[in-house]
Amino acid sequence: MNAVLKCSLAACGAALLLAGCGHSSAKSMGQKVQVQRGDIRQVVQATGQVEPLNKVSILPPVTGRIDKILVMEGETVKKGQVLALMSSSDRAAILDNAAAEGPAVVKQWEEEYKATPIIAPTSGLIIARNVVTGQTVAADTDMYDLSDRLVVFADVDETDLGKIHMNQVADCTVEAYPNKVFEAAVSLIGHQAIKVNNVISYQINLEPKKVPGELRAGMTADVNFIVQIKKDVLWIPNFAVKGMQQGAAKVKVLTTPGKPPEDRDIVLGISDGVKVEVVSGLDEGETIVIPGLDLPKAQTGGPMSMSGSTTGRPGGGGGGGR
Fold this sequence. Notes:
The protein is an alpha+beta fold.
């Protein structure tokens, strides 16, 4: 009988210990965060592409052969500048025949029958050179691609379109140089919707204030449209209010150490996705408590319970009669 009693007491102690642990976890106060002061920048994020605003393909005025390349890819040219020299098919044939008679004859024909210049139709950047010296070209050969300037075309979701306006500033980076930020301003807000996988977006044109030398046509750009910047404001982490912003909310504030936190009504402002502004209801340095998980108390009647240990099998008392 003493052995059974000892076992029952041990089981009872274990059950009480488990119940006590579960009760303690359930009463856990949760994570504490302090109200801080700083700057918040609200942005609309988008992806885009670096492309020429206007691209001009320069074709040869006649069929013939390229004699000399004067301008290479990546150079900036002015309207009317000579990019290359070429011979028409007739001139190329005459010069080839003259070569058999000697350099003096070639020079004479070169002076009498001038080469045809390839002229830049507008000022801009040469983004592609598609011919080499000695190459035969036809009337439809794309010799050069000329861009007036590089811009960023960004796709903005229709739900964010109301936050975009003309001349709005955006911070841009390209994937090749993620740490080099350049500013661009909105120059056009598209009127025609773009629908991809049932998602509606609109194209926004952005003109860089200063085109970085590293920028290349075709690069993928990350764009942050700056909607609003607030400096020196109170803020708390977004997760403290479950991602809420711009409106009323409730938080628990630890006013007295050792005592339960008190409910408080606050008003939230803008958010940058990580921090959210506190317009009113809190002071700098105050501690708010984010409740932890409310774990259930330990249940009785399981395989470790006292009843299962003493009366779980018929005839359990038979052992005490020995």
